[in-house]
Specification:
Number of helices: 1
Distance between the termini: 13 Å
Shape: globular
Order of helices and strands: EEEEEHEEEEEEEEEEE
Largest sheet: 7 strands, mixed
Structural class: mainly beta
Number of strands: 16
Oligomer: single chain
Length: 228
């Protein structure tokens, strides 16, 4: 199996990207009382439409789909709707490159400055497989660490913060996540906050279907599911 990187030049015109849970429901035929069991196997699924595609971009996408060989190989993608965490100014648009102090490296009179980014967050403690929250450190003290729905990358897997969290005065934050942690994580393991990706494979061998309109513009919709 080969893992491919997603081409930067390709961005979907329509996107569905969500966590598909794996639950089992038992409903009483008499009282309709319901019991629900959570099972392992929750996975990220996506459907991305690219329309219209110029001949060059269509070729780029079709070449990638050919390389993926149906469901054999994988490609790392991210949710294009939410590439940065809520507290990152880049989530509001383009931010010019630094530096963010004055030209002589001084800050404001109260000691504050202009900050872009997330500090250097990492796990403050190890976490077992199946954990529904992680203890982190390295955030800017008292600032927003993550917002509800922000993505986190950890150990090559993708997770979502299920609640908004503000860092403590010491720069620590306990973040509730979904899905449950795929594998045990070690202390000091770094978090990926900018375009965290997930390895996905095509759902079927027919994802490269490419209806073409007059004028040579191509439309392709692909369905993907997380490689567990």
């Amino acid at each position: 199996m080969v893992e491919y990187a997603w081409p930067e030049a390709l961005r979907p015109s329509r996107l569905s990207f969500y966590l598909q849970h794996n639950t089992l429901r038992f409903v009483s035929p008499v009282t309709r009382a319901t019991q629900v069991m959570r099972r392992e196997g929750a996975r990220w699924v996506a459907e991305a439409s690219f329309d219209p595609l110029s001949p060059a971009r269509a070729g780029l996408l079709e070449g990638l789909l050919a390389a993926l060989a149906g469901s054999l190989n994988t490609v790392r993608i991210w949710d294009w709707r939410r590439e940065y965490r809520t507290g990152d100014p880049r989530s509001q648009g383009q931010v010019p490159a630094g530096p963010y102090s004055f030209s002589d490296a001084t800050l404001f009179t109260d000691g504050t400055g202009l900050v872009v980014g997330s500090g250097s967050p990492a796990l403050a403690a190890g976490a077992p497989r199946g954990a529904l929250s992680i203890q982190t450190a390295g955030w800017w003290p008292g600032a927003v660490a993550v917002g509800a729905g922000d993505y986190l990358g950890l150990g090559g897997r993708l997770y979502m913060a299920t609640e908004a969290v503000t860092a403590s005065g010491a720069g620590t934050a306990t973040i509730p996540i979904g899905p449950p942690l795929r594998a045990a994580a070690s202390i000091a393991e770094p978090l990926v906050l900018t375009r965290p990706t997930v390895a996905m494979r095509l759902v079927s061998d027919d994802e490269a279907a490419n209806p073409t309109r007059p004028g040579r513009f191509t439309a392709i919709t692909i369905r993907l599911e997380e490689a567990l």
